[in-house]
UniProtKB/TrEMBL annotation:
Key word Transferase present: yes
Protein name: 4'-phosphopantetheinyl transferase domain-containing protein
InterPro entries documented for this protein: 4-PPantetheinyl_Trfase_dom, 4-PPantetheinyl_Trfase_dom_sf
Pfam families assigned: ACPS (PF01648)
Lineage of source species: Bacteria, Pseudomonadati, Bacteroidota, Sphingobacteriia, Sphingobacteriales
Alphabetized UniProt keyword annotations: Transferase
Stretches assigned to the 4'-phosphopantetheinyl transferase domain: 5-80
Length: 200
């Protein structure tokens, strides 16, 4: 299946106290999933939003091939979650996590990166390219414009436009023709992210 799905959650923009309440997270995290939580590896806030972002990413990934799909995070189950590798940069510590999510009879692997600022997730299926960037403003119009420019700058393809499919996902066109590149956009607060998969 050629598709793409990603999500990003900016930690300063969420209500940490509410996030840690079972009354909140039990709406989309099952007891079986909660058993995956390792407090020595990450905070409960990060765990909750990582699972949310994995489910949001999976929804976007599956909706491309099933436009009638409704987002139902409680019906998706994260089966595995493990720290992949801790990364360090000059400014921030990053941790990468790999996991697998099951929905109906479909299993999807995902990759999440956590920093002090955000949690970003992509469905890690096939040849996926993925990037995150901070922008100056957080209004929807600025986010939408910035994430499109961010992708087009990376693709380095002239004459490409981005349209929205009636189901809501982005489509890349050149001279009115679909390029066959599955794209997903995500934005939250002052962070934007894209991922894409090119059919072979």
């Amino acid at each position: 299946m050629i598709s793409a799905g990603n999500d990003i959650v900016v930690l300063q923009a969420v209500d940490a106290q509410r996030t840690q309440s079972p009354a909140f997270y039990s709406k989309f995290i099952s007891p079986k999933e909660l058993a995956l939580y390792k407090p020595d590896e990450l905070s409960l806030v990060n765990f909750v939003w990582m699972l949310w972002s994995a489910k949001e990413s999976a929804y976007k990934y599956l909706k491309r091939n099933n436009p009638e799909l409704i987002f139902a995070p409680a019906k998706m189950t994260v089966q595995q979650l493990r720290i992949f590798t801790p990364l360090k940069t000059d400014t921030n510590a990053h941790n990468q996590y790999k996991g697998e999510l099951q929905t109906n009879d479909i299993a999807l692997p995902f990759l999440s990166v956590t920093t002090d600022q955000f949690i970003a997730t992509t469905i890690d299926q096939g040849d996926v390219r993925w990037a995150v960037k901070q922008i100056e403003t957080s209004d929807y119009e600025s986010q939408s414009k910035a994430v499109r420019s961010f992708l087009l700058d990376d693709l380095k393809m002239s004459g490409v436009t981005i349209e929205k499919h009636p189901a809501g996902y982005p489509v890349l066109l050149k001279d009115g023709k679909d390029l066959g590149i599955a794209v997903s956009f995500a934005h939250h607060d002052r962070y934007i992210s894209y991922c894409y998969q090119i059919s072979k």
